[in-house]
Amino acid sequence: MDNIRRNHPPAFKAQVVLALLKEEKTINEICSQFCIHHTQATKWKAKVVDNLSHLFDDKLIGDQIKEKDHIIDDLYREVGQLKMELEWLKKKMGYTHT
């Protein structure tokens, strides 16, 4: 293998990890099949295993949704404020749109 760094898409990483978790082939066979180094495959698998419990943490997901909704509300509020300021400036400058 050459020493060129490659960025693998998430779907590819998931495919490799699923093959590793199935344990139908050895890690070396899987790494040869996907043309990756066994160290990289091991890191991806460890990351998945370490974070697997978060998939079932409804509170974490709920908190993330609340945070996203809060950010969206703030952005809409800011857009509304900016629109009001723009209209005020247009009025002060005598700008009329026909």
Indicate the topology.
Elements: H1 10-22, H2 27-34, H3 38-51, H4 58-93
Give a short overview.
The chain is mainly alpha-helical and 98 residues long. The chain has helices at 10-22, 27-34, 38-51, 58-93.
Overall number of strands: 0
Helix and strand composition category = mainly alpha
- Tally of contiguous helical segments: 4
Order of helices and strands: HHHH
What's the structural domain tally? 2
**Can you tell me the residue ranges where pLDDT is under 50 for at least 5 consecutive residues?**
none
Question: What share of residues is helical?
Answer: over 70%
Taking all Cα atoms into account, the compactness measure Rg is: 25 Å
Mean pLDDT, to the nearest integer, reads: 89
Instruction: Please report the distance between the alpha carbons of the first and last residues.
Output: 66 Å
Task: Label the overall shape.
Answer: elongated
Largest sheet descriptor: none
Strand content: under 5%
Protein name: Transposase
Organism: Candidatus Shapirobacteria bacterium CG2_30_35_20
